[in-house]
Target: MFS transporter
Amino acid sequence: MNSTDTTLGTAGGGTDRRRWFALAIVMTAAFMDLVDVTIVNIAIPSIQREAGASFSQIQWITAGYALAFAAGLITGGRLGDIHGRKRVFLVGIGGFTVASALCGLAVNPEMLVASRFLQGGMAALMVPQVLSIVHATFPAHERGKVFGLFGAVVGLGAVSGPLLGALLTEWNLFGWEWRSIFLINLPVGVAGLILGSRFISESKAPRALKLDLVGVALVTLGLLMLLYPLIRGRELDWPVWGYVSMAGSLVVLAALVAYERRKAARDGSPLVELSLFKVKSFAAGIAVQTVFGVALGVFFLVWTLYMQFGLGWSPLKAGLTGVPFSIAVSVAAGMSVQKLVPRFGRKVLQAGALVMAAGVLLYIWEAGHYGLAIAPWQMALPLVVMGVGMGLIVAPLTDAILSEVPREHAGSASGLINTVQQMGNALGLGLVSVVFFGTISDHLRPEQIGPAFADAFQNALCWVAAVMGAIFLLMFALPKRPAQHVEGEQVPVGEKEPVLVS
Model:
């Protein structure tokens, strides 16, 4: 983390009460982003029915946001360092609000997909500034309390997103149907824009790195070449150009590595700090984060499709079914950081992978045993087990990855961690075409839809369980006990925003 930030105005003063207003504003923005990721999943079937979106377009509605968010995270952080975090934050929250309006007013699925890409890009400008503003605004002795509040916001976002999406879709406010899940961002975004311009003090990094736009372009191109054929392949009967594109994506990503190596030697400002991968625990942790993102991307989308299309449940019933999972994640995350990891170290994360895999296998068994008659209370046990496993992983994983990284690279490393998490999520959403829709016939009679979606759900969960097993093995390369960070320098565990991208 850069400890020599230039803070303009009185933001750094410990007696400035305005900093708490600034904190409330940036936390609201972070909450808005967290909710917007989860709120969409529960409304997807309604979007599919009302907007006439194809299943590949449904995947793009979720994957497009994740891809644009991932591609822009590091660049968004550096723009804040160069041009001022307040300025870029306000541009981000303003753009996010406009993109939300475009999503809510979309006249066809194509416009909705394009607006989601824009929304993800604007979130990439907004989110990296949040903790950078906190770092520049609060003295070190107060940051522990502030980071604790952020942890609460993360947990609240995880619980409230699906419920809020279900309620808004079910209530059909003003006849907006699914559109209200996007339009609700408008008053929040406008308020954040007005109050942020008044209460947030400007700050910059005095020696900010240059932008690596070529690196961003290569990352985005490589991922699009990989994801587009995955998402459209089944619909287009897997054309030859799709395989060529996926193979070509590896060439583009290899070109990215070569370019980043040359750029690091030339001016020391690459998009990806390749020297970090010489640290074994960091390289392994990045692999864990990416693969974990893939598993979550697959699970959350197919879970929604299974409950609402396969079982015919309403959005509210599906949203309430997920509450035990969200609560279990939040409780286990708190326990893992405060009680378990300090005592047992890496074993807690590995136990989390095995527990989550056990929950997935239990879910597969129940889905097969109870069939289409399965009830929400019967899902509670596997969901709680999965939630406990996920909570044991998500909270301490960032610290485990960063524990052996040189402190001067902590900002770049944390930005990269969050970027690959989002990229893994986008890849998982793309793989839904293969592991879920790949097992469903194109021509189903109404009575065949439920059983077909239930079978596809079980197939997808088998893949998720296998991925969790792979994550367990990868975790052996993590340090046995993550090193302790100095107060005020720690990347808040469980938080997906980079502390400072510099």
Q: What stands out?
A: Residues 259 and 265 are 10 Å apart (CA to CA). Confidence is low (pLDDT under 50) at residues 1-15, 485-502. The chain has three domains: 17-205, 213-270, 276-481. The chain is about 75% helix and 0% strand.
